[in-house]
From TrEMBL:
Residues 41-265 form the Histidine kinase domain. It is an enzyme of class 2 (transferase). GO terms for molecular function: ATP binding; phosphoprotein phosphatase activity; phosphorelay sensor kinase activity. GO terms for cellular component: plasma membrane. Its EC number is 2.7.13.3. It catalyses: ATP + protein L-histidine = ADP + protein N-phospho-L-histidine. GO terms for biological process: cellular response to phosphate starvation; regulation of DNA-templated transcription. This is histidine kinase. It is found in: Cell membrane. It comes from Rhodovulum imhoffii.
Length: 265
């Protein structure tokens, strides 16, 4: 533990003295360290594409200016790098909004069954473009939670897009919604949303750290797939805000299952 020493002089009947207070600042130091690491990570993540962009601009201003084929190829790379920065900034904004709202209980009544079907309309075309089938399996009757529909769509989007990116080789991603009559964590009924893929999976040793910002099982692969390393951190904060639970299970080479449990309204 780290202590801060606060000493204040006191006057006692028999002379001068001092009152010494030891304040345990370990928690504050840890929070400071996490913040410094985060700023360092963000700077690094932004600097990498920026350096690439500056390099290509420099080359385009020089020799490459005359060659149309080279120019087209460089512009493609620059577009990709700018897109990466754009996604990173969007995810940072989402993360900071979600974090600042974490203590505010969401107030909408949201039907998870309808929300999954609506989100699937958009997600199915993302899946199709990647040659992946998106399968939806939900009950027919509505299942309502107290929530924030935009944020719950973001949870589904992040999990399904990960399933497509890292599990696409398995050919299909499934969203399964079930009613869980007595979820222990909530002392009451819950709705459970599973996003399952049959792709590359990962060693379960990574599970405890996977929702940390910028933690990736394979950084090179994540970057290649256009990942920011923030998707699961955003999911975790949104699930917390909904007083829900988030569980991850995976097996290398077998696929992964990301489960969100939310208390029913
Ligand atoms: P990223 O933007 O890198 O995808 P995420 O926070 O969404 O960041 O995920 C963190 C890491 O978790 C990913 O880099 C990847 O290594 C791993 N991961 C997430 N979803 C899956 C999945 N469905 N299958 C395999 N690995 C996954």
């Amino acid at each position: 533990a780290t202590y801060e020493v606060i000493s204040s002089p006191v006057r006692a009947p028999d002379g001068e003295g001092a009152l010494v207070t030891l304040l345990d600042v370990s928690e504050r130091e840890k929070a400071g360290q996490i913040r410094r690491d985060f700023v360092a990570n963000v700077s690094h993540e932004l600097k990498t594409p920026l350096t690439a962009l500056l390099g290509f601009i420099e080359t385009l201003k020089g020799a490459a200016r005359e060659d149309a084929a080279v120019r087209a190829r460089f512009l493609d790379i620059m577009e990709r790098e700018a897109g990466r920065m754009n996604r990173l900034v969007s995810d940072l904004l989402s993360l900071s909004r979600v974090e600042s709202e974490e203590r505010m209980r969401p107030s909408e009544r949201v039907d998870i069954v309808a929300l999954v079907h609506a989100a699937a309309l958009t997600l199915r075309s993302v899946a199709q473009d990647a040659g992946v089938a998106l399968e939806i399996d939900t009950p027919d009757a509505p299942m309502e939670v107290q929530g924030d529909s935009d944020q719950l769509v973001q949870v589904l989007t992040n999990l399904v897009e990960n399933g497509i990116k890292y599990g696409g080789a398995g050919g299909r991603v499934r969203i399964i919604v079930t009613h869980s009559p007595r979820e222990l964590a909530f002392r009451g009924p819950a709705v459970r949303i599973d996003v399952v893929d049959y792709g590359e999976g990962f060693d379960p040793v990574h599970i405890p750290r996977l929702t940390e910002r910028f933690y990736r099982v394979d950084s090179h692969r994540s970057r290649e797939m256009g990942g920011t390393g923030l998707g699961l951190a955003i999911v975790k904060h949104i699930v917390n805000r909904h007083r829900g639970r988030f569980r991850i299970a995976s097996e290398k080479g077998q696929g992964s299952r990301f489960s969100v449990m939310l208390p029913l309204a």
